[in-house]
Amino acid sequence: MKIRFDLTALAATTLSLLAGTALAQDKTLTINSFGGAYETAHRKCVITPFEKETGATTRVVTAYSADAFAQVRAQKAAPQFDVIHFSGGQEIVAASEGLLAAIDAAKVPNLADLYPVAKAGLAKGEGPVYSIAAIGLVYNSQSLPKAPTSWKDLLDPKVSNKLVLTDISNGYGMLGFLMINRVAGGDLKNIQPGLDAVKKLLTGGAIVVTTSPEIQREFAQNGATIAPYASDYAYTLTKANLPVKFAQGVEGTPASFITANLVANRPNQALALKFIDMSLSESAQACFANELRYSPTNAKAKLAPDVAATVAYGAASMQNLFRFDAPTIEANRASWVERWSKTIAR
Amino acid sequence: MNDRAENLLLALPGLGLLVLAYFLPIGQMLSLSLSGREGPSLEHYTRFLSDPFYLGVLWRTVRLSLVITLICALLGFPFAYIMARVGPRLRMWLVVAVILPLMTSVVVRTFGWMVLLSRNGLVSQFVRDLGWAERNFQLMHTESAIVIGMVQVLLPFMTLSILGVITRIDPRLEEAARTMGGSFLSTLRSVVLPLSLPGIVAGSLLVFTLSASSFVTPSLMGGARIQVLAGSVYKSVTQTLEWPFAAAQAVILFVGVLLVLVPYVKMNTPKHG
Q1: Most buried residue among A282, B64, B78, B136 by CB atoms closer than 10 A?
Q2: Would the pLDDT of A20 be above 80?
Q3: Phi and psi dihedrals of A132, rounded to 5?
């Protein structure tokens, strides 16, 4: 039996398929989001309104910042994402490696309403900050009736075996560790005091987790009482009916910036810029604060008083937040993560 | 067209896929692992091999894989033997029981174990209630947890490999051994076990390679503080962004597995090949 290929028909089918994808691409945007409750809010606040307004379809790939960055870097020759969101400072490396395209401020009108700190990276090719997460002390208000007030409270041996630390491969975990390092006497040039302190905490029974859902499990099932983590996650735990509250340490509240970045060498940059613009709009930002208790970076975003009380809101409050020097963190990340891994290894 | 050319033609798509999806990436990984800051260098290999921490991670990976393989073989052999010797109806149900877990994602099954083994989980509580462990004891985040989770994931591979061989052993051989005065156990040991060795070897190879390279179950069950090599590779790729070092670690894992496998295969070929 012989099978004959009809080459012309095959070619025609292929061509029409290719044309089909090309057409579809004009109105399709590929982005990453962080999964779970975040992705649900992301859809409600930005993605769905964006699709409604532009008629475009959005393909959402669930990828945390580190994974997302690894993908964008691997795809440098043929990028697959249009807009990429980072929460761990990855945009600094991404911009320096030429993975991101510079953003034309004229095409993103909402940039004008952002606090200056949210658009400081624009000149270097980084995307704008659309949300801020504050890092502090997440604690169980029933088993720890006296609210913690200082980062030093984490070092109290009495709470060690109920303490949950987060691996510094996680962006929030890194900021929490840097605060422990700071109160233990270290700084960005010397993290050894922090590592020594962590070692002591682990001997006392502290637990190290790598992802945020594990924190929830520790609080819900395993009797954890305190963890250095983000205000938005404290709210997630509250919604899960856990008696959890968020407190800021007197030594300061480090902030984690969540950025929306334009990937270089993609065909639909106009549409992608529109998406970024909508992420910055006052309605999207108020929505994020309502849903997840992220602090808005748009100065015009209006929040209800009860929401405003639990986030960093307003120009004065913004100034209380501080950011560890992100380029220093990026430059040292590899060696810090290695030293941390060796410290916590059993 | 002669036979040879026809055979080659038939093998071509498979070969093409192999080259494209296997040899090419492996080659790329090799070259990446040798790329230093200034031209080719072995710096990533010396960094790994001169650091007790990474050597410890490698040793743990090999050690746990060996333990997992051993336990799978110990559980899998009797199970496969029983499956081969029962009636066809019961065998079908037993095969279903072995295969069914494979239909569920590894992640889901691992999460089940996480619930059972966590601090307030059933198993940990039971062990504590018996007074075998202190108040804070939990099985999660220990090497035992990794072994338990991996054995459950990999046991079907072992059982099915052995089953295939045992069903082909002529039952009359066993009957002969029993008539000659051998007890059930000695028959099992001196007749069934040697004849099913190819299945045990094949199953062990599968289980060992799969557990040495597996990543999801060890990282979920072992936690951040117990690292295996695959987890360390993942960390280097996604978190510290040291891809050449990650490639070097992957090559070391590859070579390490190969080093264990070669004598294993060699040991077995003269007898059966």
Answers
A1: B64
A2: no
A3: -130, 135
What value does the mean pLDDT take over residues A39-46? 95
Closest approach of B235 to chain A, Cα-based (Å): 8
- What the block records as the tokens of B248 is 């070097």
β-bridge partners, A262 = A83
Dihedral class, residue A99 (left if φ above 0, else alpha if ψ from -120 to 50, else beta): alpha
Q: Are B79 and B159 in contact (CB under 8 A)?
A: yes
Q: What angle do CA A312, A316, A295 make, to 5 degrees?
A: 20
B144/B223 Cα distance (integer angstroms): 12
Residues of A in contact with B237 (CB under 8 A): 70
What does the pLDDT look like over A312-344, one tens digit per residue? 788 877 777 888 988 899 889 899 999 999 999
- As beta bridge partners, residue A20 has none
CA B136 to chain A, closest CA, distance in angstroms equals: 8
Domain spans of chain B, in order of start = 61-227
B56 close to A (CB below 8 A)? yes
Q: Which residue of chain A has the CA closest to B135?
A: A161
Rg (CA), chain B: 23
Architecture of domain A7-132+256-322: 3-Layer(aba) Sandwich (3.40)
Pick from B53, B120, B241: CB nearest A334: B241
Each residue's pLDDT tens digit, A174-215: 999 999 999 999 999 999 999 999 999 999 989 999 888 889
What pLDDT score was predicted for residue B1? 63
Contacts of A67 in chain B (CB under 8 A): 238
Counting DSSP H helices and E strands in chain A, the numbers are: 14, 11
Determine the average pLDDT of the residues in B206-222. 92
The pLDDT of residue A249: 87
Question: In the CATH hierarchy, which fold is given to the domain comprising A134-254+326-344?
Answer: D-Maltodextrin-Binding Protein; domain 2 (3.40.190)
Per-residue confidence (pLDDT) for residue B33, from 0 to 100: 95
ipTM: 0.82
Look over chain A and give the mean of its residue pLDDT values, rounded to a whole number.
88
